[in-house]
Amino acid sequence: MTITLFLAACSLRKSSSGGGGGGGSTTFTVGGTVTGLTGTGLILQDNSIDNLSITGNTSFTFKTAIAQGKPYNVSVFASPTGPTQTCTVANGGGTANANVTNVLITCSTGTVSIGGTVVGLSGTGLTLQDNGGDNLSVAVSGPFTFKTALTIGSTYAVTVSVQPTSPAQTCTVINGTGTANANVGNIQITCSTGTLSIGGTVTGLAKTGSGIVLQDNGGDNLTVKANGTFTFPTLVPAGGAYKVTILTQPSGPNQVCTVNNGTGTANANVTNVQVVCPAIFHTIGGTVVGLVGTNSGMVLQNNLGDNLTISSNGTFTFNTPIADGSTYDVSVLVGPNTQPGIGIVTWFYQGTATSAVTSVIIDCGHNDWAWFDGPNTADQKGTSNPPPSPPPAAPAFDTSSPGGRKYPATWTSADGSGNPTLWLFGGYGLTFASNLTPPATELNDMWEYVGTQNYFGSFGNYWNNVKAPLSPGAPAVRQGAVTWTQPGTGGDLFLFGGEDNFLNFYNDI
User: Is it the case that residue 387 has pLDDT exceeding 80?
Assistant: First the structure.
């Protein structure tokens, strides 16, 4: 009872600072000693609020005193660096009933361990690795620690070097990197039996190729249209088998592709399947016509390099095939010695090879009749079409011509270069005007045959309809007129007389 009354009486006194007796509340200082400190930046803290910077191995005292009977708790708020050190606290906590001087801060430059926990492991062969070199085999789920400790302040990077098998699993790393300022134990390796992708690369597929279809495990189809990487849309279970085959070989051009590394067990994503398509080559050739003799010495050339000697008429094929999609250009390097000075026309001599080419025509001139233009059957209507396009497009034969007729007026004149041009006017027969054919009738249409002096035909020779039937300003329809040209280059054309379909005879010029 006496003690209780004394304490109650003391609680009514005014607080005062001091280290011992006297009236009023008493406060005490908190401090101690630092040893082993070689770095800078060490900060201590008391009761999580009172910070104190330490600069060397010495005794220390926190600025804020603690009331008698109140707790103190000293901790390291910031560890020293330069060099990095780990500082530990001894005698750091208690109740202040006197000045505290025995808190001991011990700093050391040492090593720390790197570890964590593996969960979900059911396979075998899992190997972890730290910083690319410290391998650790893990057999069961649970804690792990790498054998090699790291210097305090060093970085660590934990990865999975080998995934487990039997069953195959995929293990992932959480909290795998950082700086080790203390022992690391929060790295987590999570292993699961999941799904994996199957893929690889396609090489050698022709640019014009299409339709190659790959298949995995007899059911997962994938169409590939270009060289590069591929991945099947359907994943396979980890540890499951895969079998990549070719369901449909490419066409246009046809290729026979093969598969390498196409089968196995997927313990990780598969990316090494190789689909290899061999290069496609095509031969270039055609036909020689009109060549005189059987030992002409004529030499053809493809793409200015592949020479081929031709002895006689018939088919030919150059010795060197060209890659699919490449261009060819056939020309006559040496003309035939059996026909000196004769013009030679090459047809369909340029193009892009997407298959074997057999359409090139080498047409050597010959001293007999040659068909230039128009059908060789009777009673054909005329047609009026634009002139055909010249090379390098493959030449198309002229499809424009007057209709069949008799007694037309015809004559020739010279163009500006002195080359003759054939003209045709009127006559009795058929034309392309729908209101006039059939039947045959007297006509007054005007035609010009371009390239009369050329044997070569096609793009250099064609009918050009200058005036259509019944065109205003033309002479009246007639047959059997007389025609001539004024002498000299570019001379005028003259026409006299003729008979129309009413038996009228003209004497106009």
Answer: no
| Collapsed DSSP state (helix, strand, coil) of residue 3 | helix
Rounded Cα distance, 384 and 274, in Å: 58
- Report the C-alpha gap between 491 and 483 in whole angstroms: 13
Tell me: do 85 and 140 sit in the same domain: no
Q: Which amino acid is at 383?
A: T
What one-letter code names the amino acid at 396? A
Token pair for residue 349? Answer: 């001599």
**Residue 414: domain span:** 405-506
Contact 155, 178 (CB under 8 A): yes
DSSP letter at 293 equals S
Q: How far is CA 450 from CA 55, 353, 395, 498, in A?
A: 108, 33, 16, 26
* 77-98: pLDDT as tens digits: 998 887 778 788 999 999 999 9
317 alpha carbon, distance to own chain's centre = 36
Question: Cα separation of 72 and 74, whole Å?
Answer: 7
Residue 19 and residue 60 share a domain: yes
Domain's final residue, options 217, 250, 276: 276
CA dihedral 98, 102, 103, 108 (to 10 degrees): 170
**Based on the number of CB atoms within 10 Å of its own CB, is 105 exposed (0-12), middle (13-18) or buried (19 or more)?**
buried
Total structural domains within the chain: 5
Sheet of strand 42-46: strand arrangement: 50-54, 42-46, 71-78, 93-95
Phi/psi for 372 (5° steps) reads -90, -50
- Give the C-alpha separation, 453 to 344, whole Å: 15
pLDDT tens by residue, 457-485: 445 667 888 888 877 888 999 999 999 88
Q: For residue 401, what are the contacts with CB-CB under 8 A and spacing of at least 6?
A: 373, 374, 375, 382, 383, 463
